[in-house]
Amino acid sequence: MLEVINRYCHGYVAVPVIVACRAHGLFELLEQQGVLGFAALVERLHANDGHFRVALNVLESLGWLERDAGDAYRLTHQGALHARVPDDVLALLALPFDDYLRGGVPGDDCSLSAWFERSLRGWDAHDALLADLLDGLLVPSLLLALRAPDGRDAQLGPAVLASLPEPARGEVSDYFTRRGWLEADGDAEAPALSAAGSMLWARMFNAATVLSYRPMFGRIGELIFGTDGSVRAATGDGDESHVDRTLNVQGSGFGHQKYFGDLEAILVSIFDTEDFDAQPAYVVDMGCGDGTLLKHIYTVITTRTRRGWALDTHPLQLIGVDFNRKSLEETTRTLADIPHLTLWGDIGDPRQLLADLEAAGVDDPDRILHVRTFLDHERPFREPRGEAMAVAVSGTTVHVAADGRALPEAAVNLGLAEHLHRWAGILGAHGLIVLEVHSLPPAVVRDNLDSESLHYDAFHAFSGQLLVEATTFLDAAAAAGLFQQASSWRKYPRSLPFARITLSRLEKRDYRIRQVSEADLPALLRLEAACWPDGGGFDSSAIFRLDASRRDAALPCAPK
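== Polyketide synthase ==
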C-alpha cells in the first residue's frame, strides 16, 4: 500500500507539472521538432531554467522524456499520455475538502460525485500508472481531511465517516466501498475499513509533507514560466506563501520517526558507559522544531543507559535551537519537566551559535553533542568563497534560486563543503549526529518509481531546498574535515541500491580530503617520485585522467 501512496504523491507533483508544460507548448514542440537541446527549449518556451529543469527531471523520471549526453530532450512513446490528462483536473487543488466533508460548501459545489466517478473509471486514461497519478490530486487530500487535525489518531476514520453530513457521507462511503476500502456488507451506521482501507488510512499521513506544498503546486505554471517571483515570496508578516508550514512540520515528524531507532543506538553507545566525565553534558539540537526529538533523546538516555542513573551527579541539559521563535515556544512546552535551554539560531551561522552558547554558560565545546535532522538542505545558499575544497558534481542534481534561475551544481556543492567547514569549527570531541535526505539522478528515480523519490526530489527542488546526492554530502563533509563514524553510518532504504536518507555521526579529524586541482600537481608528482624512485609512478596527465574517470580517485589529503 505504501507504493500506492507514493504514486499518489507523485501525481500531486507530476500532474500540475504536466498540465503546465502542456499549456506552454512543451509537448507540442517536442512532437514537432523531435529532439531539442535544453537551452533551445528554455528560449522557445520562455522558461525559468532552474524550475524548468526540475520539471523536465519529473518527466524524465516518469519515462516520458529522454535526455542525451548533449543535454537534448526527446519525447518517448509514454510521453503521449499527456493528452489523457484532463484539462480541469487542477481544480482539485483549489477544492476545500474540509468544508465539503463538514457541509460548508453551498449549492452545486457541495458534491464530489462527478470526481469520484471519474476516479472509479480510471480517469479514462487506460494506463494504470497515470490513473494513480491523477488519483493523487483527489485521494490524499480527501483522506487527510478525514483525519484528526494533527493527523495522529489512526482509529478516527470510521467514526468520522459515520458522522459526516450528506451528501458527503453517502458519496464518500460509496466511493470507499467501490474502491474496496470499506467492507461492502458492513454496518451503515458504523462503517468498517477493509484490510486495504486500514493500511491506506494508517499510512496516508506520509502524504502530508507533499500536500503541504499545495499553494506552490497550484501555481506551478507561474513558477516554471512566470516572471514575478511571487510564488515563493514571504507574506508581509513573514509567513511562507508557497507552503502550509504547520502541515509540513506534522508530516515531516510523522515520516521521520522510523529513522530514530538507529539514532537511539548511537545515543546508547555514547551514554551507556560508566565514564560519565567523558560523556556530553549538553545535547544541542539545531532546528529543534517542537522539541520532540530532544524529549525522545532524553527518554532514551534516562531509560536505556547507565548515564540515566547518574543524572543527579552528572546532569544533562538539552538545548533547543531554532530559527522560528514559535518553535522555541513549543519546545519550551514540550521540555517543561526536563532541564533545558532554548536559543534562537540559524543553521548557516554556527559561530553565532557558539557565542550564544558561551553567553548562556555553555562554554566547553568538548562537552556538547550536536544533533540535527533533515536540516542542512534548508540552509540558505551562499556564494562560495572558493576555498580549496572542491567537490565533484553529478550533472543531474538541480538547485534553484528564488527567481527561478538554476544555481550551478559546483557552487552549491562547494557551498555545502564551506557550510560544513564552518560547523567543523565549533564541534568538539563528541561531533555531530546528522540525519539528512538526499537527491537521486532521474534514471535511478525512474527505475525505483514506487519509492518516494520522484515527489521528494521535485518538491524540494521547486521550493529552493539544496538537496545533494548522498556521496556528494559525504565528499563535502570530508572536504571540511568531517568523517562519518563507520560503525554508526546507515543509509535508507536499507535493501535498495540507492541512498535516499543517511544517518551519520560526523567526527573531526586533523586533515581534509578533496578533489585534485592543478595547484596540487607539484606535490603529487613529488609524492609519486618518492614512492616510485625508478619512474613507475603516474605523470601529470595520468593523474588528471584518473581524476576525470573516477570521482573518488586522486583525492589529496590536506592538513587542516
